[in-house]
Amino acid sequence: MFLYLTTILTQGGNKGINFVIVTGDFDNYSKTKTFEKSADFLKRLMETLELEITKDLFIVPGNHDCCTPIEELEEVISSV
């Protein structure tokens, strides 16, 4: 999967993808920096796929993601 995503990001284009579902965990220890990196990655991925991040991206947090204080998560999520 990582190789496929790398190919998409380096070659560009939609490749027939209509939406993206991301399941956690974004981090093992719920660190804000990791969530920021994840948000940057998702923004880049959605732009490359020419999809709308507010309509075509579905995020399902994992059990490790929920250990982060809600204020930190809201800040990162609102930046996406």
TrEMBL record:
Calcineurin-like phosphoesterase domain: residues covered: 5-66
One Pfam family named in its UniProt record: Metallophos
MF terms in GO: hydrolase activity
Name listed for the protein in its UniProt record: Calcineurin-like phosphoesterase domain-containing protein
Gene source species: Acetobacterium paludosum
